[in-house]
Design a protein that fits this description.
The protein has 107 residues and is α/β, with parallel strands linked by helices. 45% of the residues lie in helices and 13% in strands. The chain has a 4-stranded mixed β-sheet with strand order 1-2-3-4, with helices on one face.
């Protein structure tokens, strides 16, 4: 079953009070909510992108939890490069920021 079809079926058959989407499905759920003109279902998803930001502005997504996945790859390559070129031992734990985005915070 396709993602959009599955979301439509849930919206048709269940009483939905809110939706939490981990990873990419937030985009698909937001699109279905927009197609069906349902902006009043609270929906929280992961990861900022141009399409999810637009759905956030239009209030089909209530909030996004952005972990900046692009930073993970950058930090890993940077630490490996520093180790290989300078012998620098990386810290065992690296803090990577996370952000809670709402329509008001990205305007």
């Amino acid at each position: 079953m396709g993602r959009s079809r599955a979301v439509n079926r849930l919206l048709d058959e269940a009483q939905i009070n809110g939706i939490f989407c981990a990873a990419a499905p937030a985009l698909y759920v937001g699109k279905v909510l927009k197609e069906r003109r349902i902006p009043d279902v609270p929906m929280v998803g992961f990861d900022y992108s141009a399409p999810t930001a637009q759905l956030l502005r239009e209030r089909y997504i209530s909030a996004l939890l952005d972990e900046r996945p692009d930073k993970y790859a950058y930090l890993a390559v940077k630490k490996l490069f520093q180790y290989l070129t300078d012998g620098a031992i990386p810290a065992p734990v690296e803090f990577t920021p996370s952000y809670i985005l709402t329509s008001e915070s990205i305007l």
